[in-house]
Design a protein that fits this description.
Elements: H1 2-47, H2 51-64, H3 80-84, H4 93-98, H5 117-129, H6 135-146, H7 149-165, E1 183-185, E2 192-193, E3 199-200, E4 204-208, E5 213-215, E6 220-228, E7 232-239, E8 243-253, E9 262-263, E10 268-272, E11 289-297, E12 302-305, H8 308-321
Length: 322
Amino acid sequence: MYTRSIHSLYIVLILMFCLSNTPVEAQEQETVYDKRLALYKKTAALTQIPWYYIAAVDQYERQIYKDIEDDQVISIRFPSDLWYGAGNNSMDIKKIEFFDGKGKDGNGDNKADPSDGEDALYTMASFLQEYGHTEEDIKIGLWNYYKRDLTVQTIKNTAKVFKKFNDIYLTDRDFPLAINHTYSYRNTWGDRRGFGGNRIHEGTDIFADYGTPVKSTTYGVVELKGWNLYGGWRIGIRDIYNIYHYYAHLAGYQDGVKVGQIVKPGDVLGKVGSTGYGPPGTSGKFPPHLHYGMYKDNGYSEWSFDPYPYLKKWERMAKNKN
């Protein structure tokens, strides 16, 4: 009897730990998002730059630095010369203005500290404000800051997603094929391919029957759609984490899917096919399957990385929803 009581108490303690631990972690994570959103909206009120553009810039920069901590609220960084002005290293706002620096005081402490999130957000929004408040004005401001078309496009796309869903806590994901259909896949990233010359396979092949629905795995914007010599009918989606998702060999597209469209996890994009390896319309040179690739952008270049671990995770998530 005593042994059973100890055993029951042990089980209760484990359950209490499990039930209390996960919500606390989730609550802490949500608190970081809440803090960010509050700062974005405060800065927007001060500068009239829409909060979703301010959020998109911060989100973009969060992806390009390797030393960002998960609980870091704001991730925007400025070159020292731009912040302080050439020849200056003082946070005094009058000295920064004298040296033509861009650093601003966003929290009212009479200092422009580049490591302070409020100061960084206010400075970035003020920089964009110099060019105006329309979407075209903001686009010009972004280009003058980053000097890179892909960066400007990525920030614009992320802003569209944040505006559409009126949120920045967009962490849901989905498997790219309908899991109630028959499919199979293994890790094929890095395998050799011969068509068009020796090259590596930059993705994972998921084999399924013709017509199996192909779905968006993430929140993002359709960046590219059409025929590709290697990929056949393909579609590309840029997500809010500076990642390009590439879907190839489609039999066709879902009605209404177009470049510039905002998508969310589970949205149907098209159907599994076997198109590619030739001029437009070429099909049947290999078994039907979806080629799924992922490409990361770090602000300077873009490269392929292995999607297989993510596919396994998203597959588990999709099955748990059913």
